Amino acid sequence: MVETAEVVIIGGGIVGSSVAYHLADAGCTDVLVIEREEKQGMGSTGKSMGGVRAQFATPVNIEMSIYAIDFFNRFEEATGHTPDYRPHGYLFAATTEAHLDYLKSNLERQIDAGLKNAAMVAADDIRRIVPQLRSDDILGGSFCATDGFVDPYSVMRGFASRAKDRGVRFLMETEVTGIEVDGGEVRAVKTSRGKVSTRIVVNAGGPWAGLVAGLAGVDLPVRPLRRQLVNTQRCDFLPTPLPMIIDMSSGFHFRREGEGILMAWPDPEETYGFKTAFDPEFIEKILIRAVDRVPAFADLPVNPHRCWAGMYEVTPDHHAVLGEAPGVKGFYLANGFSGHGVMHSPATGRILSDLILAGKTDVVSDVRALGVERFAEGRLLEETAVL
Ligand SMILES: Cc1cc2nc3c(=O)[nH]c(=O)nc-3n(C[C@H](O)[C@H](O)[C@H](O)COP(=O)(O)OP(=O)(O)OC[C@H]3O[C@@H](n4cnc5c(N)ncnc54)[C@H](O)[C@@H]3O)c2cc1C
């Protein structure tokens, strides 16, 4: 059993692995990642849809995505593993003038933040890209060619294996059960295998982050929300490659996954809680939205063995919580990605490493906006481009 570490990271998913990688890359290798499962990726990371997009509404989310897209382009060189980044684009299809105005004002912010590949598209462009859409009510939309998909599991493995090469240790099948704080400073973590002395702890607990923060006496408003994905059998009638298509009238979105189509829809009836069982009744619900937008989906069989559920880690303003917790020196938060933790894992790892080692970062223009204190101070950010 390890008895001491300069930095302890709680959680070995994509976020904990990215923080470990970036710390090691910056020369801090006395790092211990503690994961309670037998294997990495059994939390949200292994359940993700793998979407990567810079088409967001707030500067901080756009900046984190721009960082990610650049990073995924050089991921293999940096880690020796492929991220399987497929820049097939995200296509938002608007069906009201309000949607169009919203996409236009988002685009202005994206251009201000330095995004070069996003543009408004006309309804006819959308019909050309995906002729199979029912498009009588589509007014136009927006498209970004560098948005796309990665393989979350490969990204996590890339981060973790390069971190291990540099000396980071991973302690599996070990649960963190307590965090010792004395005089407002972190002193140690207690685990199912004994105690580890440390002055710096990073909470990378995914949907369980609120419980982990509670161990240090920190109130972190991150709640788990089930998300379900439905996969189909082989689909020959849609283009290849296909962007992520987002029907803004319902929130229904889909992309190619292997030979089939992977479908998602934010069910407004879903309630918060630690739920990971897939509900077969969801198939009927999502297919109503799917067939409404792509009539040919009525004849495409669902693959019941390739449907699954996982949990988003949701904050009240749908933005991540990054940085040191006020009142507990040495306790850092990397949580609450609200459905964007895979795409924001590269920026998060770098930001946390910068904050731990240098106390500042230039990855985003205002990292303080993501501090947990914003909830108590009423400084919420509003991200409306949530899928
Ligand atoms: C259906 C679905 C679709 C999604 N689609 C996308 C998408 O398209 N794009 C995107 O960017 N994001 C997406 N996400 C979100 C993304 O998957 C998450 O934001 C991301 O995986 C969070 O990574 P993480 O490492 O913080 O959490 P996790 O992967 O959950 O890792 C946290 C780890 O902490 C461990 N842990 C918790 N408590 C303790 C403890 N006390 N002791 C030891 N270990 C502990 C857990 O076992 C777990 O392995 C999706 C999520 C779901 C569920």
List segments where confidence is low: pLDDT < 50 over at least 5 consecutive residues.
none
Major β-sheet strand ordering: 5-6-4-14-15-16-13-17
What is the beta-strand fraction? Answer: 15-25%
End-to-end Cα distance, whole Å, is 42 Å
CATH topology of the largest domain, which one? FAD/NAD(P)-binding domain
| Overall 3D shape | globular
Give the CATH level 1 class of the largest domain: Alpha Beta
Helix content: 25-40%
Note the total helix count. 10
How many individual β-strands? Answer: 19
Mean pLDDT: 97
CATH architecture of the largest domain: 3-Layer(bba) Sandwich
Radius of gyration, CA atoms, in whole angstroms: 21 Å
Class per helix and strand makeup: alpha/beta
Briefly say what this structure is.
The chain has about 375 residues and is an alpha/beta fold.
Protein architecture, described:
By secondary structure, the chain is an alpha/beta fold. The protein has 2 domains: 175 residues, FAD/NAD(P)-binding domain; 152 residues, D-Amino Acid Oxidase, Chain A, domain 2. The strands form 4 sheets. The chain has an 8-stranded mixed sheet, with helices on both faces. Strands 8-2-1-12-19-18 form a 6-stranded mixed sheet. Helix 1 packs parallel to helix 6, helix 1 packs across helix 9 and helix 2 crosses helix 9. The longest helix is centred in the first third of the chain and has 16 residues. The termini are far apart. The model has no long low-confidence stretch (mean pLDDT 97). Flavin-adenine dinucleotide binds next to helix 1, strand 13 and strand 17.
